[in-house]
Design goal:
This protein is α+β, with helices and mostly antiparallel strands and about 450 residues long. Helix content is about 45%, strand content about 10%. The chain contains 14 helices and eight strands.
Length: about 450
């Protein structure tokens, strides 16, 4: 990316135009059914959906990044992220469309005997994301819009014709379609790599703002914006990652893109346990960290994105391990061993619930609301390498207070949630709720 990129007045006009349209959410269930047997025509339909949907999502974020409260928009790192989003927006809207004969255009726009995807249901997390008493969520600002931007226009063509649905017609698509899909996929992959360091760069921007204002904590308005921004980012990266995987990966009987149709909860959680214990032992220079007991049916499977679930469990287990070691000391062994951390997984009709229980001393009741606040941490030394170039799952978030709020967003993205109950002086229980029905559409605040 060129460091000299600037948003021209003409590009600003296009950004404001696209930001006036609503975003369209898709559900995990729809994504799985859509991509099970993708032909080049199906992938073209997906490309056309993303070519229309992604500029709308990016435009909303650029507009918000330019209008943040308390001069946060003026911070160098925030301006850098705004330019990344604007450059990606420009590349998408200027990408040349594919030229098809009339009969193929008709095949794409008309329904045959294909099975259409089931309707998605509203994501319960959307209300939670808007449960903030500040100007960003006032009725005048929202203006009845599902995406938080006033004066929203109806985008009928996307709802009716560009919707994410499966086409299974056995059509012989010309080489131009294959070429278009390959070029569009390469562009999306480049956009995804450009945005890899967004989480840490925005965190750096907030730190810059805190230092410039001599502020100890961030306010509700900035907290709400971070929730909305990071939730949107999860959605954008999921759509891009799914599309790139469908176009580049070899077919696998248990995967549709990056979605595992038979994600084994036991195996994913067990791997997260091993990774978290390894990090704990490395950090404290211990031979053996606190034990973790996993109580989970070995064959519990459901459709999910393994990377999301692994990230959530890893972050929460890391917190529990740190709490236990800090309470009992790194030398707790022999006659006074560490109390075990217990991970219990249960399947219900609606949810798969994972409970992580530790005896790390708990959290004071007055601090419970603060744990969901970005930048709230008990760890010292808040600094981020300015040149850090890593993705969400590799970012050095320990000590920055991002683990819990980001994990909750990942859980909420597909209609789940994350809840915490603490008993000060004893320990903490964290509940991860995962929507096993997979029908909730993305929360697009």
């Amino acid at each position: 990316m060129s460091a000299a990129f600037r948003i021209s007045p003409a590009l600003w006009d296009r950004i404001h135009h696209f930001a006036s349209f609503p975003q369209t959410g898709v559900s995990l269930q729809q994504m799985v059914l859509f991509g099970q047997h993708p032909s080049q025509g199906t992938l073209l339909k997906a490309s056309q959906f993303l070519a229309e949907e992604l500029p709308v999502r990016l435009a909303h974020r650029v507009k918000e990044l330019d209008q943040l409260p308390h001069n946060l928009s003026d911070m160098p790192s925030i301006r850098k992220v705004k330019n990344w989003y604007a450059q990606s927006f420009e590349e998408l809207i200027n990408f040349p469309p594919v030229h098809l004969p009339q009969h193929l255009r008709q095949q794409l726009s008309t329904s045959t005997q294909d099975i259409f995807l089931p309707d998605s249901t509203p994501n319960p997390s959307l209300a939670a994301l808007q449960d903030h008493d500040h100007p960003l969520f006032s009725s005048s600002h929202l203006n009845g819009s599902p995406n938080g931007i006033g004066n929203v226009k109806l985008r009928v063509p996307l709802e009716r014709s560009a919707r994410y649905y499966a086409k299974s017609s056995a059509i012989e698509w010309p080489p131009s379609v294959l070429d278009y899909n390959a070029r569009f996929t390469r562009m999306l992959d480049a956009i995804k790599r450009r945005h890899d360091p967004t989480v840490t760069t925005v965190a750096q921007g907030v730190l810059e703002w805190k230092r410039s204002q001599n502020a100890k904590n961030i306010g509700l308005d900035i907290q709400a914006w971070l929730d909305r921004f990071y939730m949107s980012r999860i959605g954008i990266r999921f759509l891009i990652g799914q599309h790139v995987a469908l176009n580049t990966q070899q077919p696998h009987k248990d995967y549709v893109g990056i979605i595992c149709t038979k994600a084994n909860v036991h195996d994913i959680v067990q791997e997260a346990i091993e990774n978290a214990r390894f990090v704990c032992e490395e950090h404290y220079a211990m031979f053996k960290g606190p034990p973790v007991q996993l109580i989970c049916p070995p064959n519990l499977i459901f459709p999910y994105v393994p990377g999301h679930l692994s990230h959530i469990c890893f972050e929460l287990l890391k917190n529990s391990l740190r709490a236990v070691v800090d309470r009992f000391g790194p030398e707790a062994q022999g006659e006074n061993p560490f109390p075990p951390i217990k991970v219990i997984v249960v399947e219900g009709k609606e949810d798969i619930t994972i409970k992580i229980t530790d005896e790390g001393g708990g959290i004071p009741r007055s601090a419970i609301p603060l744990i969901w606040t970005y930048m709230y941490t008990t760890m010292a030394g808040q600094n981020i390498d300015q040149d850090f170039q890593a993705s969400d799952f590799q970012a050095p978030m320990a000590g920055f207070g991002y683990g819990l709020p980001l994990s909750r967003l990942y859980a909420r993205y597909f209609g789940g949630d994350l809840r915490l109950i603490s008993m000060e002086g004893y320990g903490t229980d964290v509940y991860i709720h995962l929507n096993r029905l997979s029908s909730s559409r993305e929360p697009l605040p």
